[in-house]
Amino acid sequence: MNGLAMIAAGIAVMAGIGGGIGTGIATSAAIKATVKQPKAAGKIQGIFIMATGLCGATAIYGFIISIIIMFVK
């Protein structure tokens, strides 16, 4: 395995950092919105779950791509 493939795999894994940051921002926004509008908590929770799922999917895609880059020749 050459060094460039390892660097590319490392960059692909960094998608997990973006997923973590996105989840934190979504959580913060959901908490603030629920505090301001308690009656809308159900709608806010649904949007929060969808946003968190998308952030998590991005992190998983980056991990899978890094595995593919490292082990497929």
TrEMBL record:
It is found in: Cell membrane; Membrane. The keyword Ion transport applies. Gene3D superfamilies: F1F0 ATP synthase subunit C (1.20.20.10). It comes from the Bacteria. Its main location: membrane. Keywords: ATP synthesis, Cell membrane, CF(0), Hydrogen ion transport, Ion transport, Lipid-binding, Membrane, Transmembrane, Transmembrane helix, Transport. GO terms for cellular component: plasma membrane; proton-transporting ATP synthase complex; proton-transporting two-sector ATPase complex, proton-transporting domain. It is a multi-pass membrane protein. Pfam families: ATP-synt_C. Residues 7-69 form the V-ATPase proteolipid subunit C-like domain. GO terms for molecular function: lipid binding; proton-transporting ATP synthase activity, rotational mechanism. The keyword Cell membrane applies. The chain crosses the membrane at residues 6-26, 47-72. InterPro entries: ATP_synth_F0_csu, ATP_synth_F0_csu_sf, ATPase_proteolipid_c-like_dom, F/V-ATP_Csub_sf. Key component of the F(0) channel; it plays a direct role in translocation across the membrane. A homomeric c-ring of between 10-14 subunits forms the central stalk rotor element with the F(1) delta and epsilon subunits. F(1)F(0) ATP synthase produces ATP from ADP in the presence of a proton or sodium gradient. F-type ATPases consist of two structural domains, F(1) containing the extramembraneous catalytic core and F(0) containing the membrane proton channel, linked together by a central stalk and a peripheral stalk. During catalysis, ATP synthesis in the catalytic domain of F(1) is coupled via a rotary mechanism of the central stalk subunits to proton translocation. Belongs to the ATPase C chain family. This is ATP synthase subunit c. The lineage of its organism: Bacteria, Bacillati, Bacillota, Clostridia, Eubacteriales.
